[in-house]
Specification:
Layout lengths: L9 H9 L6 E9 L2 E5 L4 E6 L1 H6 L12 E7 L4 E7 L5 E5 L7 E6 L3 E7 L6 H13 L3 E7 L6 H14 L4 E4 L8 H7 L5 E5 L6 H9 L23 E5 L5 E4 L12 H7 L1 H7 L16 H7 L5 H18 L2 H24 L1
Parallel strand pairs: 3-5, 8-9, 8-11, 9-10, 11-13
Antiparallel strand pairs: 1-2, 1-4, 1-12, 2-3, 4-5, 6-7, 12-13
Helix pairs in contact: 3-7
The chain binds guanosine-5'-diphosphate (GDP), magnesium ion (MG) and zinc ion (ZN).
Length: 354
Amino acid sequence: MELEDLGFDGWFRARREEAPMPECGVARVTRVDRDRYLVRNEQNEVTAEPAGKFLFHTDAQQDMPCVGDWAYVQYQNDGTRAILHDILPRRSFLRRKTAGERVDYQMIASNVDTAFIIQACDLNFNLRRMDRYIVMAKEGNVEPVVLLSKSDLIDSAERDVKLAEIHAAHAGIRAFAFSNTTSVGVDVVRQLLERGRTYCLIGSSGVGKTTLLNGLLGREEFDTTPVRESDGRGRHTTSYRQLTVLGNRSLLIDTPGMKELGLLTDSESIDDSFEDIHELAKECRFNDCSHTVEAGCAILQAIEKRELDETRYQSYIKLMKEAAFHQMSRLEKRWKDKKFGRMVKAVNKQNKRR
Ligand SMILES: Nc1nc2c(ncn2[C@@H]2O[C@H](COP(=O)(O)OP(=O)(O)O)[C@@H](O)[C@H]2O)c(=O)[nH]1
Ligand SMILES: [Mg+2]
Ligand SMILES: [Zn+2]
């Protein structure tokens, strides 16, 4: 196997030449399981430990190595283990905001060409959540492709309605339905996979990501999760992310189910995902229209005339608000909180007086 087969193309070669580390080789991070890493090069796959630099000087989670990264490594013990010294710049990434007061991001995977956004054809199907995943992919320079799993649970008419809804919401997006159970459509997915390119499966747990990976591999290599009867969700078993080389030398990253996304957005990639709304916004009377109360707002008018779906509008506004919040500095946020606190106090006072 060559490094090219693992996705090391001209772009990464150039980055490596810009920052040569002669004493190190390069290898791809193929698995991250908490603080344990596997890296793979032309010859083999070995465990790796991050160098002290990462442990002591990295406080942002997203700066730690993640699956898909290209890393500078030094081999030890006859090449049976490696020290991971640094990572090459990321060409693309999938990341989500971590819980907590501080805005930090958790990397899901890096250097991904295409994200397969998977939703099952049952209750898991949710266009608004899909919007979030699509925004997440575009923001990280990753091409989103939607895969509807468990198509065996609905008939073909229902399936076509769902695909039409996806296309109506996101013009030009590629979307396919498949079933692991009947194998219908799995070949369509297989044909999307190109040698040396990296794909990542994302979506709620229990939608059939790992079953699809096993199906594409042609063997039951990875454990799948039985679905709980009560809520149709998969139980959480594995926590690691893994990059697997498939038979046709394409690269597929499986991820555990993500707790639903409290994403990470910037308004530009939102506009990209909501092009129709963005176009309408150009017709608003005011340049700084917030599309919520203004007279002459083309978006509100379109909803009135039923030319724009109201739930779609709601999800647009919600994402815009989140994006605006993330773009504020910490100080601005504190100020906003204070101002909010003062307002609450004032209202309470008034209420008492009454
Ligand atoms: N009906 C149906 N069930 C499926 C399909 N694919 C997977 N499942 C079941 O869904 C459960 C979760 O699958 P798994 O691959 O572990 O989901 P993951 O959490 O997304 O990796 C398992 O019990 C699978 O047998 C499918 O195409 N149709
Ligand atoms: Mg899984
Ligand atoms: Zn407006």
